[in-house]
Amino acid sequence: MRCNACWREVEGRAVSTTCGHLLCTEDASKILGNDGACPICDQVLSKSLMKPVDINPNDEWVNMAMAGVSPQILMKSAHRSIMFYIGQKELEMQFKMNRIVAQFRQKCEAMQEKFTEKLEQVHTAYQKMAKRCQMMEQEIESLSKDKQELQEKFAEKSRQKRKLDEMYDQLRSEYESVKRSALQPATNFYSRNEPDLFSNQANILDNREAVRKAS
Ligand SMILES: [Zn+2]
Ligand SMILES: [Zn+2]
After folding, report:
1. Residue 82 falls within a domain, yes or no?
2. Structure confidence at residue 183 (pLDDT)
3. Number of domains in the chain
4. Which spans are transmembrane here (predicted)?
């Protein structure tokens, strides 16, 4: 059996209480010294409520302790002792269960802590990624804006080039026609009916005189 305070296995001498609990001698004297209470049921304990017991009594005790006691009392005492033993086993089981539950809870808490840590890491990584995505989106937006501008500039330059091409073609054809006419036979050149601006200068002067007179 185990002490109900420190849960160490008790051997030899121990103390049983009237409230049905068992203590090692060290814990029993500690409780008595501090005017303390039973660790299981909180009953305030005094020396009169505690009884020393021998957990492993010798043969002499076994043979003589109950000698002279009537079978009725003996059976009653045996029943009480067995009930005490069962109570102790139940307490031990409860203690073990509590310990297992506490260990399990501790493990769960440690796992939860780790899980929370991992979750935070994942969340941080996700936030970083989201930020990067946002930056990339902005970059894409600015690049597409640049692209649009470049396309517009390209279209404008193409228009200008087309115009220049047209001008070039026009000039070229003009040049070709001038060149063609320059290369034609001389008879054609002289056959043109050009007005002779210098032949009738006298007439112009006369006309000027006429205008002056009229005014
Ligand atoms: Zn103890
Ligand atoms: Zn008690």
Report:
1. yes
2. 84
3. 1
4. none
d(CA 12, CA 89): 18
**What per-residue confidence (pLDDT) applies to 184?**
77
Ligand 2 midpoint to CA 177 (Å): 131
Q: Domain span at residue 41?
A: 13-105
CATH of the domain at 95: 3.30.40.10
The reported pLDDT for the residue numbered 207 is: 55
CA 42 / ligand 2 centre spacing (Å): 6
pLDDT (0 to 100) of residue 65? 87
Residues measured by CB to lie within 5 Å of ligand 1, the ion:
3, 5-6, 24, 27
User: Residue 171 domain-assigned?
Assistant: no
Q: Are 41 and 87 in contact (CB under 8 A)?
A: no
pLDDT less than 70: residues of the chain: 185-215
Q: Residue 201 corresponds to which tokens in the numbers above? A: 């200068």
User: Which residue in this structure is represented by tokens 């109570």?
Assistant: 87
* β-sheet bridge partners, residue 13: 54
The pLDDT, as a whole number, for residue 27 is 96
Cα-to-centroid distance, 8 and ligand 2 (Å): 17
